[in-house]
Write a structure and sequence with these properties.
Layout (H helix, E strand, L loop, with lengths): L1 H13 L1 H14 L7 H13 L3 E4 L8 E7 L3 E7 L32 H19 L3 E8 L8 H6 L8 E8 L7 E2 L4 E10 L15 H15 L8 E8 L10 E10 L2 H22 L2 E11 L3 E2 L1 H14 L6 H13 L31 H5 L4 E7 L19 H23 L1 H15 L21 H12 L11 H5 L10
Parallel strand pairs: 3-4, 3-5, 5-12
Antiparallel strand pairs: 1-2, 2-4, 6-11, 7-9, 7-10, 8-9
Helix pairs in contact: 1-4, 1-11, 2-4, 2-11, 4-11, 6-7, 8-11, 8-12
The protein binds zinc ion.
The site of zinc ion has 5 residues, from loops.
């Protein structure tokens, strides 16, 4: 095993150029959730060239696919997200706001590097499996529309994980680490409340109209009063996606999109019921109609597998953090100052393995629909060090590092750890058994999975279509061309790092 793991490390190192090109390519696409068309096309082509069988249009989602290689047990699912963030377009390697295409989306979290981690690891291990005749199946899959919590529950419903023994997820971060148990990640339901009123001339005969926008505003006001009487762990936020057409027409339709988050399934369902009652109340007050409550996405709170996390941590310790250059640290520090934080630079000490957070200590937080997968098959999420600590996530700041040597070295480090954990699972049947024992006897002993979306809900694949259509042609000019340029920085003629003059 030691020898095979050393070989996996060497193979991942020799694929560093491949890893870098994939990371840069996806960065340049910068596509939003459910619109990851270029991204998926590119990844599918790479995987087919590597001999994977690719099923497309999985779960009725045009940008979803599952790529399979190998035969027999164990079946190892390798997942990573694909999508970007609105208005996060940013020149990589530049430590101040400088968009490639103003207003356009971009990889303001770093979802462009996760597939490179998994696919590099899969290729490295596959070569070893082929040579040594090691049995097992690798299943690479994409976290489509993670920002909308839009796809993974549907993958579960479509049976993507039915025969899977273990799922290894990879997610960008600023350190190399994993965790087990439940964290402060929340469950979530994403729901669109749509109201219908009656239009009228807003000056000539306003009394004849009933404003759907009034219902939206009253709902928001009521929710903000109610917020005082909700648990501290909840998170809820909304945007008005339809606020009417123009001021002199009483808005006939209006809708508001809420993300409602709580620590577990029952409390999240309760939050949705509260919000729905408030929406009904707002409709009653305004004599409008609550036309529909459409669920656009959902997520269970992740619970990660302890034996798998412990095995992965041994591999993580063997890999360690990348060696950062002065240029990497200069970029990181300049950006940390720009963000108004402490300029401590990049991580130089490995995080330790984090365990479950007791219910009474949870403070609430973000969500990730890997939660749904984690309640169906033993799962862990590898955090890999492709980004800079201390920045504002989901903004242009966390895009800066994502097509630079920081992202590339972080992805290579992640791929090494992932490849070694795949070898553990392939060759140590006892590890898979103990993963399932933990899953059955500890994790799901008192809590079983039921999806948060309803039986008749469908993936919200229309999301982001207009936004993407608005910017795609302008963004296309900046797609990375690896046949002409060694790196994306070179193509963009960006000096690395570019920082403000002191
Ligand atoms: Zn993410």
């Amino acid at each position: 095993m030691t020898r095979l793991k050393e070989e996996a490390i060497r193979r991942v190192d020799s694929l560093a150029r491949f890893t870098r090109q994939m990371t840069d390519q996806l960065f340049s696409y910068g596509e939003l959730g459910f619109q990851e068309g270029e991204t998926s096309r590119y990844l599918i082509d790479v995987l087919r060239r590597e001999g994977f069988t690719v099923e497309e249009n999985v779960a009725g989602i045009p940008t979803a696919w599952v790529a399979t290689w190998g035969r027999g047990r164990p079946v190892i699912a390798l997942g990573a997200d694909l999508d970007g963030i609105p208005q996060a377009s940013q020149k990589p390697g530049v430590a101040y706001r400088d968009p490639l295409v103003p207003g356009a989306p971009g990889h303001g979290e770093g979802h462009n590097a996760g597939q490179a981690v998994n696919i590099t690891a899969a290729i490295a291990v596959k070569r070893i499996m082929q040579r040594d005749g090691i049995q097992g199946t690798l299943k690479v899959w994409p976290g489509v529309a993670e920002e909308q919590l839009g796809a993974k529950a549907y993958f579960v419903r479509a049976g993507v994980f039915r025969d899977v023994d273990v799922c290894l997820f990879a997610h960008v971060d600023d350190n190399l680490a994993t965790s087990w148990g439940s964290s402060s990640y929340n469950a979530l339901v994403s729901v669109l409340f749509s109201f219908e009123g009656r239009s009228a001339h807003a000056a000539g005969s306003p009394w004849a109209g009933r404003s759907a926008l009034d219902a939206v505003q009253l709902m928001d006001i009521a929710w903000n009063f109610r917020r005082e009487h909700l648990r501290l762990q909840q998170r809820s936020h909304s945007v008005i996606v339809d606020g009417g057409d123009q001021p002199n027409v009483v808005p006939q339709t209006a809708s508001v999109w809420y993300y409602l988050r709580e620590t577990d399934y029952p409390r999240t369902v309760e939050l949705l019921e509260t919000a729905t009652r408030i929406a009904e109340g707002a409709a009653m007050m305004t004599e409008t109609k609550l036309a529909s409550t459409r669920i656009l996405g959902s997520a269970w709170p992740p619970h990660f597998n302890r034996p798998l996390a412990e095995a992965a941590t041994r591999n993580i310790q063997r890999v360690g953090l990348p060696r950062w250059t002065d240029a990497d640290q200069t970029l990181a520090r300049a950006l940390q100052r720009e963000s108004g934080g402490n300029d401590r630079g990049l991580a130089t000490r490995l995080d330790t393995l984090a365990g479950t957070i007791p219910e009474e200590q949870k403070r609430g937080g973000g969500s990730d629909d890997i939660g749904d997968v984690s309640w169906n098959v033993p799962t862990i999420s590898l955090r890999f060090p492709s980004n800079i600590p201390g920045l504002r996530w989901h903004s242009w700041e966390t895009a800066v590092a994502m097509a630079t040597p920081i992202a590339h070295k972080g992805a290579t480090a992640g791929a090494k750890a992932q490849a070694m954990t795949i070898l553990d699972i392939l060759l140590d049947r006892a590890l898979v058994d103990s993963a399932w024992r933990y899953f059955r006897d500890v994790q799901t002993k008192d809590m079983q999975y039921k999806p948060l979306m309803r039986a008749n809900d469908r993936p919200a694949t229309h999301l982001n279509a207009e936004l993407m259509a608005k910017y795609r042609e302008q963004m296309r000019r900046y797609y990375y061309d690896p046949t002409r340029y060694e790196t994306y920085l070179e193509q963009l003629r960006i000096a690395y790092p570019t920082v403000r003059a002191p």
